[in-house]
Amino acid sequence: MVNPNPFNPKMNLNQQNLVVCGTGTDVGKTIVSSFLVQGLNATYWKPIQSGLEDGSDTSKVCKLLNLAQERWISERYKFQAAVSPHWAAEKEGQWINPSFLNLPKIQGPLIIETAGGLMVPINREFLQIDQLKLWESPIVLVARSELGTLNHTLLSIEALKKRLIPILGIILNGPPHEDNPKTLEKFSNIPILAHLPHLQELTAKALKEEWEKQHLDITFKHFKKITKS
Ligand SMILES: Nc1ncnc2c1ncn2[C@@H]1O[C@H](COP(=O)(O)OP(=O)(O)OP(=O)(O)O)[C@@H](O)[C@H]1O
Ligand SMILES: [Mg+2]
């Protein structure tokens, strides 16, 4: 594991915001966001939720971590259909306005979970990656650990780099893989920050054990909220 460079000049590190993106839908953004929220003692925000018919990510994170009310922020947009945000909005006669997606200013770290992958449309003129550019906050890219990840992850990183969007690093999700971590680092020049294995029991305790085992307080030290006990 390689530590991120906290002095990357392109990153806006004035706020302790981390934007959790994925190489696609269902890659584990909600689980990795929970991992970060718990490990960093952070607040969680999912600005756009489509697919309420399958339950919301906010409620999953709150249930998994037993989060207090002040540790999560309500969605700006919520839609029933489990389809891309632009179309889910249209199905309900709505249109997502990016100027309503400004990052909330809070005390301490904020973990923002995006919808789907980078090139998902927010509306008919604006992609999620356009929003990432406006936010200027460091990206944590969640990628599957196994077969198929090289192409999806390297394409995602190329798209972020092309737009000069700062990337803190990658978190791999799934069973350990012998070759993918080193190949991803070699071709992307982006560090792998952590590796969340498949957890038989998805509990706050299991996430905490992984956090400690991988010494992630050190990797993410800039983003950790220090609380007095
Ligand atoms: N490391 C893991 N161990 C066990 N189960 C996992 C792990 N990562 C993800 N899952 C399971 O895989 C499914 C998809 O994960 P998750 O909901 O985090 O994906 P997502 O990227 O947030 O999806 P979406 O694009 O819908 O927001 C969930 O049922 C989740 O519980
Ligand atoms: Mg999710």
Walkthrough of the structure:
Helix content is 32%, strand content 20%. It is built from 8 helices and 11 strands. The chain has helices at 29-40, 57-65, 85-91, 128-135, 149-162, 180-188, 204-213, 216-219, and strands spanning 17-22, 43-45, 48-49, 72-73, 77-78, 110-117, 121-123, 126-127, 139-144, 167-173, 192-196. Strands 4-2-6-1-9-10-11 form a 7-stranded parallel beta sheet, sandwiched between helices. Strands 3-5 form a two-stranded parallel sheet. It is globular, with a radius of gyration of 17 Å. The relative contact order is 0.21. Adenosine-5'-triphosphate binds next to helix 1. Residues 29-30, 57, 113 line the site of magnesium ion (MG).
Keywords:
alpha/beta, binds adenosine-5'-triphosphate, 229 residues, binds magnesium ion, two-stranded parallel ribbon, Rossmann fold, seven-stranded parallel β-sheet, globular
Chain-wise SSE layout:
Layout: E1 17-22, H1 29-40, E2 43-45, E3 48-49, H2 57-65, E4 72-73, E5 77-78, H3 85-91, E6 110-117, E7 121-123, E8 126-127, H4 128-135, E9 139-144, H5 149-162, E10 167-173, H6 180-188, E11 192-196, H7 204-213, H8 216-219
Parallel strand pairs: 1-6, 1-9, 2-4, 2-6, 3-5, 9-10, 10-11
Antiparallel strand pairs: 7-8
Helix pairs in contact: 1-2, 1-7, 5-6
The structure holds adenosine-5'-triphosphate (ATP) and magnesium ion.
Magnesium ion (MG) is lined by residues 29-30, 57, 113.
CATH superfamily: P-loop containing nucleotide triphosphate hydrolases
CATH topology: Rossmann fold
Q: Give the tally of β-strands.
A: 11
* Name of the CATH architecture: 3-Layer(aba) Sandwich
The helical percent reads 25-40%
How large is the share of residues in beta strands?
A: 15-25%
Which term fits the overall shape? globular
How many structural domains does the protein architecture include? 1
Q: Which regions are unreliable across 5 or more consecutive residues at pLDDT < 50?
A: 1-7
What's the number of helices?
8
Radius of gyration: 17 Å
The CATH class turns out to be Alpha Beta
